[in-house]
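Renewal narrative, Specific Aim 1. Our central claim is that a sequence can be written position by position from structural information alone. The example that follows is taken directly from our test logs and has not been curated for this report. It begins with the structure tokens describing the chain, in the order in which they were read.
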């Protein structure tokens, strides 16, 4: 997976991508990050540190981490909170293409 770090609350305007909301102190976030890094997918991932990008966390109603939001053409199509194994994450992405 192509992994990018979000800076200045800036995201793409079009296409399908995954937002990975995390915090540096969150152990399940670290575990999910490893799953994302090891997964094969053509969907780019944008990591969002909730402490540095609070506006994005508010925009996507993030209430806990780790949290994922699948975005298509600037609109959220699915969200999920909590750790996921690779098979769950793959099904989450593929089920919303």
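The sequence written for that structure reads:
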């Amino acid at each position: 997976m192509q992994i990018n770090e979000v800076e200045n609350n800036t995201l793409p305007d079009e296409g399908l991508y995954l937002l990975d909301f995390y915090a540096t102190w969150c152990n399940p976030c670290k575990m999910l990050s490893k799953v994302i890094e090891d997964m094969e997918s053509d969907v780019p991932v944008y990591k969002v540190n909730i402490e540095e990008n609070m506006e994005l966390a508010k925009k996507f109603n993030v209430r806990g981490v780790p949290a994922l939001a699948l975005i298509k053409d600037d609109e959220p199509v699915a969200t999920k909170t909590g750790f996921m194994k690779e098979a769950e994450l793959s099904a989450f992405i593929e089920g919303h293409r």
